[in-house]
Design goal:
By secondary structure, this protein is α/β, with parallel strands linked by helices. It has 18 helices and 27 strands. The chain is globular.
C-alpha cells in the first residue's frame, strides 16, 4: 500500500498544481496557494507531530528514517510553493496591475507613506522581548508570526537579541499609498524596526514562525468532566512540542542555529524560505483587490421548486424524499427545516448532531429558539472536532442556557455523523422527519464544499435515525439497524460484505461493479477486499480526493481499479457508494464516513441508502454520469504514486463542477 503521510503530501502537491495552473483565475490561484499552507500546517501539527513522538519513544527503529523522508518531501513541496509565488504569481499579479513588493523593492515614496502609518498604527502594538541572562527565550504561540532582531550596543560593542511578536490583529498585507500596490506587514515592520530599539544598532531582522503539536490527548477514564478536560488540554497545547521552524532564508547560520536550539528542533525541521513565511495570509489579498474578473464567476445556489415554500416543507417531505446537492443547490432548505421545526406548534422534539458549524450559526439559533418555545431539544455536540473545540464548547453552553439537553456522545468515540430528527404530532400520532447528510451543519462551508442532504419521512429510515440518537444519548451497546450503516457497530463489515458480494458475482460471471467517492482511502480491510474484487474482474471506479493508500493498476492485483482525484473550485467532500448488486436495482449509499480505520472504529458515522427510485435515477443520470464524462479537472493515480491528467493533452475538457453548476437550471430549480 502507499504510505499515508506521503500520499497526503501528494494530495497537497495537487492543490499546488491548481495555483500553478494559468487556466485558473489569478486570485483563485492565490487562494489555492494559501490552502497549501493551511494543509501543511495541519499536517505538521498532527501527522508529523505523531511521527516525532514515535521517534522520541523509540517505538520503531525505522521511525527516524521515515521522518526524514517525510521532511524531505515537505521541503520539496514548500520549495515548489515558493517558486510558484515568486516566479509565477507575483509576475502575473504585476501584469494584472497588482504590484506586490518585497522589502527591498519599497522605494522612497513607499517608505514615506508607510513611515507615518508605522508610527501610528503598528509601533504602539509592538512589544520587543529581550533575550539575555535575565530574560529567557519566550514561549512562542503556535503559528504566530515573530521577528528575530540582532542588535549591537555601540557603547560597548555588545551584541544582543530580541524577539518581536507580531500581533495577530494586525493585517498581514498592507496597501501602498496611491494604489501603488501591496507589501507584507512583516516587511513594513522590518523597514522601521530600528525605531523600536533607540540607542541600539539594528544588525538584521528575520521573520519566523513555529508549529507545535496540536493533537488533543484527553483521558476520558481519568477526566470527570469532558468539557473541562478539553478546555484544560487546549490551554496545554500552547506549550505543545515544537515540530517545525519557518524562517526567512537570509538568516545567518549562527542565528539559525540559535533559533533551532531555542525551539528544540533539528536542522531538518527548519524551512528556510525567501518569503512570505506564512503564505496562508496571502488569501487576504483577495478581499483587498476589487477584481471580480480575476475570480471564479459568481453563482447563486438554486432552491429546488419543492423547497421554495418553507412553510410547506413538512408536507412536501411527507410526500417524497428530497435530495439536495450542495453547493449547486442551496443549504437554505436544511436551515428552513430546522426553523420550521422550532416554530411549528405540532413539533414536540428535535435531535441533532453537531460536529462543525459557522460562527454565526443559524442552525444553533434555530435549536435555541426551539428550546425556548418548549420543544424537547437534544444536541449531540462533538467537543473534540479538531480546531473547532472552543467554538463547540461555546455552542454547548449557549444551548444549555436556552434549555436544550446537550450531550457529548459515546465514551472514546468522536460523533462525526450528520443527522437530525424532528418528531411531529400529526392526526393523533407521532411522525418522524429526518435530515441526513454527508457534510456539516455549516451554511458557510455548504457554499464551497460539495455535499448531499437527504430530507425524508420514510418510516423505516427515520426509525433507524431514532435508534441512532438513542444509541448516542442512551449508550446502547448492540443496536441493530435495518437500513443505516453505522460505525463503529456494523459499517466496516457491511461495506466489506457489499464489496465481497460484487466479487462473488464477478466470479460467477454475473453483473458486478463498484463506484466509491471518498475523501480518503486508508483502511487495510477495505483495500484488501477491493484488491480481491479486482482480481475477480470487478471494475472498481474510485474517486479519492486526498489520501489513497490503495495502489491501482498493478497487473494481477489491482488492474481493474481506477483511482481519480477531482480538485477544483469547490472542495469535493461528499461520500457516495454504488454497488451493481447482481444486476438488480443498484445499491446507492451516501454518508459521513471515509474509508479509514478512524471512521470505522473510533467514530460514530452514518451511511444511508437512497430508497426513492426517482432519486436513484437522478444520481445515476446526473451525478455519476457527470463524474464519468466530465473529466477536464480529473487526475488518475498511477502505480508509482504519481497522478496524470485523464486527458494526456492537458486540461481541455469541461470539468465536472462546471457541469454541476448548470444541472439545477435543467431540473426546474429556482434562484
Amino acid at each position: 500500500m502507499f504510505n499515508r503521510e506521503l500520499s497526503w503530501l501528494d494530495f497537497d502537491r495537487r492543490v499546488l498544481e491548481l495555483a500553478e495552473d494559468p487556466s485558473v483565475p489569478l486570485l483563485e490561484r492565490v487562494r489555492f496557494l494559501s490552502i497549501v499552507s493551511s494543509n501543511l500546517d495541519e499536517f505538521f501539527e498532527i501527522r508529523v507531530a505523531g511521527i516525532m513522538q514515535q521517534e522520541e519513544s523509540a517505538s520503531h527503529p525505522a521511525t527516524r528514517e521515515f521522518l526524514l523522508q517525510v521532511l524531505r518531501r515537505a521541503h520539496e513541496l514548500v520549495a515548489a510553493q515558493q517558486r510558484c509565488w515568486q516566479s509565477q504569481l507575483v509576475p502575473a499579479l504585476a501584469n494584472a496591475g497588482i504590484a506586490f513588493k518585497a522589502r527591498q523593492q519599497l522605494d522612497e515614496a513607499d517608505r514615506r507613506s508607510l513611515s507615518e502609518r508605522f508610527d501610528q498604527e503598528i509601533l504602539p502594538a509592538l512589544t520587543p522581548l529581550a533575550i539575555d541572562p535575565s530574560h529567557s527565550f519566550p514561549v512562542l504561540t503556535n503559528k504566530g508570526l515573530y521577528l528575530l532582531a540582532l542588535l549591537r550596543n555601540p557603547a560597548n560593542g555588545e551584541t544582543r537579541r530580541a524577539v518581536v511578536p507580531v500581533p495577530r490583529i494586525l493585517p498581514r498585507i498592507l496597501a501602498l499609498a496611491d494604489k501603488r500596490g501591496f507589501t507584507l506587514l512583516s516587511h513594513v515592520i522590518q523597514t522601521f524596526l530600528f525605531r523600536l530599539f533607540p540607542g541600539l544598532e539594528l544588525q538584521g531582522s528575520w521573520a519566523f514562525r513555529i508549529t507545535r503539536n496540536s493533537d488533543l490527548y484527553v483521558d476520558e477514564e481519568e477526566s470527570g468532566n469532558l468539557l473541562e478536560a478539553i478546555e484544560e488540554e487546549i490551554r496545554n497545547l500552547r506549550k505543545g512540542a515544537t515540530v517545525r521552524l519557518e524562517v526567512e532564508n537570509d538568516i545567518p547560520l549562527p542565528e539559525l542555529a540559535w533559533l533551532l536550539a531555542s525551539t528544540d528542533l533539528d536542522a531538518e525541521n527548519a524551512f528556510l524560505t525567501p518569503g512570505p513565511v506564512n503564505m496562508l495570509r496571502l488569501a487576504s489579498l483577495i478581499d483587498l483587490v476589487p477584481r471580480p474578473d480575476l475570480l471564479y464567476p459568481t453563482f447563486v445556489p438554486t432552491v429546488p421548486a419543492e423547497c421554495a415554500d418553507p412553510a410547506g416543507l413538512f408536507g412536501r417531505i411527507a410526500q417524497q424524499d428530497i435530495l439536495l446537492h450542495h453547493p449547486y443547490e442551496s443549504f437554505a432548505p436544511v436551515v428552513d427545516f430546522l426553523r420550521q421545526a422550532a416554530r411549528d406548534e405540532h413539533v414536540v422534539a428535535i435531535k441533532l448532531t453537531l460536529y462543525r458549524t459557522s460562527g454565526d450559526s443559524p442552525v444553533v439559533e434555530a435549536l435555541k429558539e426551539a428550546a425556548r418555545n418548549g420543544k424537547q431539544v437534544t444536541a449531540l455536540i462533538e467537543l473534540r472536532a479538531r480546531f473547532d473545540e472552543l467554538n463547540n464548547i461555546e455552542w454547548s453552553r449557549q444551548l444549555q442556557e436556552a434549555g436544550a439537553h446537550v450531550v457529548y456522545g459515546l465514551h472514546g468515540l468522536k460523533t462525526h455523523c450528520k443527522a437530525c430528527l424532528v418528531v411531529r404530532q400529526e392526526a393523533g400520532v407521532l411522525r418522524r422527519y429526518a435530515h441526513l447528510g454527508t457534510g456539516n451543519y455549516n451554511p458557510k462551508t455548504a457554499r464551497i464544499y460539495t455535499d448531499f442532504s437527504l430530507l425524508t419521512a420514510d418510516e423505516e429510515i427515520t426509525a433507524d435515525v431514532g435508534l441512532l440518537f438513542n444509541v448516542l444519548t442512551g449508550n446502547l451497546s448492540s443496536p441493530q439497524f435495518k437500513h443505516l450503516l453505522v460505525a463503529p457497530f456494523d459499517l466496516s463489515c457491511r461495506i466489506i460484505a457489499l464489496i465481497e458480494a460484487e466479487t462473488a458475482a464477478a466470479r460467477a460471471r454475473r453483473p458486478a461493479g463498484i463506484f466509491a467517492k471518498v475523501n480518503s482511502l486508508v483502511d487495510p480491510g477495505v483495500i484488501r477486499a477491493l484488491y480481491a474484487a479486482s482480481q475477480a474482474g470487478v471494475k472498481v471506479d474510485l474517486i479519492v480526493r486526498g489520501i489513497c493508500c490503495l495502489i491501482p493498476g498493478v497487473p494481477g492485483k489491482s488492474e481493474h481499479i481506477r483511482v481519480r482525484s477531482f480538485l477544483g473550485r469547490f472542495l469535493e467532500h461528499s461520500r457516495v457508494f454504488r454497488f451493481v448488486n447482481d444486476g438488480a436495482e443498484p445499491i446507492l449509499l451516501m454518508g459521513s464516513a471515509d474509508w479509514m480505520p478512524r471512521n470505522f472504529i473510533r467514530r460514530v458515522e452514518c451511511v444511508f441508502p437512497l430508497r426513492s427510485p426517482a432519486l436513484v435515477r437522478r444520481i445515476e443520470d446526473e451525478v455519476l454520469a457527470t463524474y464519468r464524462d466530465r473529466q477536464g479537472d480529473a487526475k488518475v493515480l498511477q502505480p508509482d504514486g504519481s497522478s496524470v491528467p485523464c486527458d494526456p493533452s492537458g486540461r481541455l475538457g469541461e470539468c465536472s463542477q462546471d457541469a454541476f453548476l448548470r444541472l439545477p437550471l435543467r431540473s426546474g430549480a429556482v434562484g
